Amino acid sequence: MTIQFFGAARTVTGSKHLITTASGTQILLDCGLFQGINTDELNQQFGFDPANVDYMVLSHAHIDHTGLIPRLVRQGFTGPIYTTSATIDLCEVMLMDSARIQERDLERVNRRRQHRGQPDLEALYDEDDVQKALGQMQPVEYNKPFAIGNEVTGLLTDAAHLLGSASISLTIREKGAEKRLFFSGDIGRPDDKILRFPDKFPQADYIICESTYGDRLHEAEPDMKAHLLRIVQQTCVQERGKLLIPAFAVDRTQELIYALDQLSSEGHLPKIPVYIDSPMSVKATDIMRDHEEDFNPEILAYIKKDGDAFCFPNLRYVSDVEESKAINNSQEPCIIIAPSGMAEAGRIKHHIKNNVEKPNTTILLVGYASPNSLGGALKRGDKEVTIFGERYHVAARVEIMDSFSAHGDYREMLQFLSCQDPARVKTVFLVHGEYDKQVVWKEKLEGAGFRTVRIPDMREQVTL
């Protein structure tokens, strides 16, 4: 059996890990889009033949894990895609949105390429490809084994990173022996405000583990709501400015709405407009409401008391593009929450462009942003940023709240892995992280007793 790493290898986005059994069966774990600057050509070629892939197992709906599935289908993949029902519901919204964004962005990319004398890039996929991909998705319940062909058994366990997110356990039977492979997906946090605690998972021989925050601990946040309220008061009340929050459309946006809903119920939230400026976020919130089975007891108790954790006075869900433009042109103090979380696409990018040079604007970053993204540049403290090909001076205040991060830090990831006997794990492969962070995470894992920890390079193939 071999594993080959075609994405998220010494980088964060583009998650793709291809397993080939001794009999030649190919199983793809995730099929994500590379995101950030200079990733256009990376997304054009897989490095393997999609028509040769027999099965796919999907960890969760974020675009850096799903965003190339329709292209996989366009180029010949016809097999089943196993994942949770909540992930399928979210993919319908998120992949359709991705197709539309790419169509718009491709025109701009090709104009720049033509100016440089480079050939045009083709569209990665369209909405028809998305529909075909959705038709190949098959729902799987947590903690119930399922067959993947004749030689592999799969098991999905709750990763608590996103609604419907799963870690993937595979038991592969070869030549009378079994090999047990575990893929963490993205590891959630034990104190998520909406989702349940991550599940334990069966003992593994080999582990593919994410590394996003492998070098750090999240800052202690004794009162997340008080911190958020302070930022709202300073920006929107004292300075009469706009608070812009790039947030992933699923889970991070709803977690913010839930926090603001609580502040409103307590009578603390100023009477200012709060806009959820994204058709996808509107649909995702409805999907969240439909999957309360994934919620933790705390928010379920709040919903029983309040009636709805995602609705309060002055909150407005915005789908219409003309209304979004009106918000952009308005000078009134307000809160605007919109994807993408890395500020690389969508309406939030326009809001930042129009307000980043205003000192009474605050841009609040509440999740991971890759270094080569707009969110990463703002988080790093760059004094100038490039937005839609133009340079802008950063006069806006940039704030960071790690308490909203959906990725576990190294202590939380070690806790997640504590159900394993490290002496029985032959190799841990580190993916989905920047290399310098992976080096630190490797040391942490070795200190916890994992004897062999490897950091594979892009397209590296390993025989098990």
UniProtKB/TrEMBL annotation:
Pfam families: Beta-Casp (PF10996), Lactamase_B (PF00753), RMMBL (PF07521)
All residue ranges annotated as the Beta-Casp domain in the record: 253-378
Keywords: Hydrolase
Coiled-coil annotated residue ranges, if any: none
SMART domains noted in UniProt: Beta-Casp, Lactamase_B
Domain Metallo-beta-lactamase: 13-227
SUPFAM superfamilies: Metallo-hydrolase/oxidoreductase
Record's keyword annotation contains Hydrolase: yes
InterPro entries: Beta_Casp, MBL, Metallo-B-lactamas, RibonucZ/Hydroxyglut_hydro, RMMBL
Protein name: MBL fold metallo-hydrolase
